[in-house]
Amino acid sequence: MLARRKPRMGKYEYEFTRNRIHPLKFTLWVSIVSLFMLFAALTSAYVVRQSSGNWLEFDLPTVFQINTGVILLSSLTLHLAYVFFKRGKEWPYKISLFITLVLGIAFIVLQYEGWMALEKMGIVLAGGNASGQFVIVISGIHAAHVIGGVAALVLANLHAFILPFKRLPFRKLRLELTLTYWHFVDALWIYLLLIFSLQSN
């Protein structure tokens, strides 16, 4: 009995199969869009509430600007880790990944220092002016998502330093997902800082 010959795939069908997005990447991007919509709604409420009066204007603590440099640098080191991984450079990949984790933790610590600086200025969450409450709540929600990214970085570092170095497709995918999410929280913080800075002037 002759075996059936598999039908030849058409050009457009082949292009779709080759270029379709991985389900995990698709899920991540849907989550990112949802999160951006959440923060867009929060910052819109922030702007609307500012225009209604009884709004305390204050300068953001300098630590928030320092923290911006920290998270930007962490995005750079994570991107370098991804590049080194693809090129098969084991130790540059591991070192860049570890530095990213340290910077991610530093961002959380500095955010806490920023909230403490706000408290010293009289900007508190309970019973304070709405302007300070918005800044604390929105930056706190962002920090919670950064903590999620730090957890992913901890896992990535464990895999990098414990498992044998192999450029396997699923490891590359896992690193790409972490990189995409981390770039998102990075860009999101810059967006939030711009909103806070513009409304405080």
Backbone shape: elongated
Task: Give Rg in angstroms.
Answer: 22 Å
The main β sheet shows up as:
none
The counted number of beta strands is 0
Find the CATH superfamily of the domain at 62-200.
Cytochrome c oxidase, subunit III, four-helix bundle
Helix fraction by DSSP (H/I, runs of at least 4): over 70%
CATH class of the domain at 62-200: Mainly Alpha
CATH topology of the domain at 62-200: Four Helix Bundle (Hemerythrin (Met), subunit A)
Number of helices: 6
Provide a descriptive summary of the structure in words.
The protein is mostly helical. It has a domain at 62-200: Cytochrome c oxidase, subunit III, four-helix bundle (Four Helix Bundle (Hemerythrin (Met), subunit A)). 80% of the residues lie in helices and 0% in strands. The chain has helices at 11-19, 23-51, 62-87, 90-120, 130-162, 169-200. Helix 2 runs parallel beside helix 6 and helix 4 (90-120) runs antiparallel to helix 5.
Task: Output the keywords.
201 residues, mainly alpha, Four Helix Bundle (Hemerythrin (Met), subunit A), 0% strand, elongated, disordered N terminus
Briefly summarize what is shown.
This protein has a domain at 62-200: Cytochrome c oxidase, subunit III, four-helix bundle (Four Helix Bundle (Hemerythrin (Met), subunit A)), CATH 1.20.120.
Helices and strands in order, then pairings?
Elements: H1 11-19, H2 23-51, H3 62-87, H4 90-120, H5 130-162, H6 169-200
Helix pairs in contact: 2-5, 2-6, 3-4, 3-6, 4-5, 5-6
